[in-house]
Amino acid sequence: MKEKYKDRIELLQGTLDLMILQALRGGPQHGFGISTLIRTRSQEALQVPTGSLYPALHRLERRKWISSSWEMAKDRNREFKFYSLTSTGRKQLTKEESKWKQLARAIARMMRPAEEA
After folding, report:
1. What's the distance, CA 76 to chain centroid?
2. Residue 60: which of 17, 15, 31 has the closest Cα?
3. Does 19 reside within a domain?
């Protein structure tokens, strides 16, 4: 298992919040669903450990960017805590996307050879 993730990318500070908000854009998800969505959309490059995911979910909930409720999972016979994006969270996602795009452009400029800059 360790070999499978040897090339994974470490997340920049604040990036996890953005990815969680983005994962919830499509609708409510439980924690494992959010983690799986991040891993599959990143083509296995990003793996969010439980020890990072749940504190981030709790932080986003305190900020009122997401809400949670206990619901019966469709494919299982038990309840899971599902997280949903709030209207405040949607606004924050827009802000975070803008900041991410600025950062990505700045990094792309930095990666060019000096004679191209």
Report:
1. 24
2. 17
3. yes
